[in-house]
Design brief:
Ribose 5-phosphate Isomerase B, Chain: A, five-stranded parallel beta sheet
């Protein structure tokens, strides 16, 4: 799967762990940053880059990491066609994909441990969209 990932300064460590996990799983992952030498980064900039990469069709899904995941999700959803979900457990990740066809997962480094974050990523990537009545609802966006 072709994926894109990015973080701000508050999500850098978790993003690195998720990136390594995705590469181990054999995914083609494009890392848009944040660079290690950056002390402060504004999450809307990175959220927009990931959302644009996903909505343009260059990547199938995106993953964003900041302190809580909330800022990244809000900023990504400003891009037309982006459906970013801030997920704090596996159930939310599965439902975001199955019912909402979310194409971007937002995670919070300050709110999740690495093990749980990786389980959320796995659930998000491995859950297909159910379509049907859920597509009817998405058509109203």
């Amino acid at each position: 799967m072709r994926l894109v990932i990015a973080s701000d300064h508050a999500g850098r460590r978790l993003k690195k762990a998720v990136y390594a996990y995705l590469k181990e799983q054999g995914h083609d992952v494009r890392d848009l940053g944040v660079p290690d030498e950056v002390e402060r980064a504004d999450y809307p900039d990175y959220a927009a880059q990931v959302a644009e990469a996903v909505t343009a069709g260059g990547c199938e899904l995106g993953i964003l990491v900041c302190g809580t995941g909330t800022g990244m999700a809000l900023a990504a959803n400003r891009v037309r066609g982006a459906r970013a979900a801030n997920c704090t457990d596996e159930f939310l990740a599965r439902m975001a994909r199955a019912h909402n066809n979310a194409n971007i997962l937002a995670l919070g480094e300050r709110t999740l441990g690495e093990g749980l974050a990786l389980a959320i990523v796995e659930a998000f990537l491995n859950t297909p969209f159910e379509g049907g009545r859920h597509q009817d609802r998405l058509n109203k966006f």
